[in-house]
Specification:
Blueprint lengths: L2 H14 L1 H13 L4 H13 L3 E4 L6 H11 L4 E5 L6 H5 E6 L4 E6 L6 E5 L6 H13 L1 E4 L2 E4 L5 E6 L12 H4 L4 E4 L5 H12 L12 H13 L4 H15 L13 E3 L3 H17 L7 H12 L4 E2 L1 H5 L4 H11 L4
Helix pairs in contact: 2-3, 2-4, 3-11, 9-11, 10-11, 11-12, 12-14
């Protein structure tokens, strides 16, 4: 790519990404700390990928997605996943209308822009697969009619890592459909004090709608235009291949610890998430630091561990960190 082209692209992205600061400002009116989570929500939104949030209860997972939907003036639906939930509760169903003397469609909550699938691992496989089909195909079939889902369509699923009774863990193939798996931790002491003050005050802050759905769709097109050099492409494929063939990348100690490596979706999502990260940083091109910044969130749910790894207390986090430290940076 010629230098002038990059300069032009940079200027264009500087202009187009101005709204990122406004969204961040609105979000942090309501969300104290959790910068990493808010940034990852924006990456999912800009790169058109769904997100799996994992964290103990009370870490503002629901509040974050609700605030984001409100900031963008888009439809929001919260679905509480329970063991007795049925696919029809999610997708909708055909209802007989006596007035019209025919079956009419009643659309379910999935026909919205932002879907919060709360505690997705609480419902059986049939319901999980109904949601994952909507995520993948971005359409829903009711009776003999297929209905496309309105864009932007973003699913944010949460799962609680501590309580495992009465839960149905997501199969690997289904987890792979999430672009990012974001692990949320407790706030710092100062942040906790701010949360406390905010929640005992007479009024709770509210976000204001600052963007329209069209703005997001336009921004997604710009994100696709962010320049990704061939050297960065090679870097991404090396990271993914190192999780599959650790021996070829001098990671022999992981030989018996990885049962399967990251799928081709990891390469696609690493590239897209890196582009979105560069866009958020107001840059028209991807640098290796962008790839490194999103690598853990893209990879952590795509690597399978053997019993030996669990016995040695080695997590996918450790493996991704080691891969990033070993693979040569362009």
């Amino acid at each position: 790519m010629i230098q002038t082209d990059i300069k032009e692209l940079n200027e264009r992205i500087q202009k187009e990404s101005a709204f990122v600061d406004i969204v961040n400002l609105e979000m942090h009116k309501v969300i104290v700390g959790q910068k990493h989570m808010v940034e990852r929500l924006l990456i999912g939104l800009l790169a058109n990928g769904h997100i799996l949030l994992e964290g103990v209860p009370g870490l503002a997972k629901t509040l974050a997605i609700k605030s984001l939907a409100h900031t963008i003036d888009a439809g929001f639906a919260r679905i509480q996943f329970t063991p007795d939930l049925l696919p029809a509760d999610l997708l909708g169903t055909m209802i007989y209308s006596q007035k019209k003397e025919e079956f009419v469609v009643r659309k379910g909550p999935v026909f919205s822009n932002f879907i919060l699938a709360d505690e997705i691992n609480r419902s059986p496989a049939k319901v999980q697969s109904a949601l994952l089909e909507a995520m993948q195909e971005r359409q829903v079939t009711l009776g003999d009619q297929t209905y496309p889902l309105e864009e932007p369509f973003l699913v944010l699923a949460t799962q609680n890592p501590i309580e495992q009774e009465g839960t149905y863990p997501l199969p690997e193939a289904q987890v792979d459909r999430f672009m990012l798996k974001v692990v949320i931790d407790y706030p710092k002491k100062e942040e906790e004090k701010m949360i406390l003050r905010q929640n005992i005050a007479s009024t709770f802050p509210q976000t204001n709608p600052t963007l329209k759905k069209e703005d997001i769709l336009k921004a997604r097109e710009v994100v696709r235009d962010v320049y990704l050099d061939e050297k960065i492409e090679n870097y991404i494929t090396d990271i993914v291949f190192a999780s599959r063939y650790p021996n070829q990348y001098k990671l022999t100690r992981f030989e018996g610890l990885i049962s399967y490596g990251a799928s081709p979706r990891a390469s696609i999502y690493l590239a897209l998430a890196s582009k979105a990260f560069a866009f958020i940083r107001r840059r028209g091109y991807v640098i290796p630091e962008d790839v490194r910044a999103v690598a853990h969130d893209v990879m952590r749910h795509r690597i399978g561990l053997t019993y030996e790894a669990e016995a040695e207390n080695i997590s996918t986090e450790d493996i991704v960190s080691e891969i990033l430290n070993t693979v040569e940076v362009p």
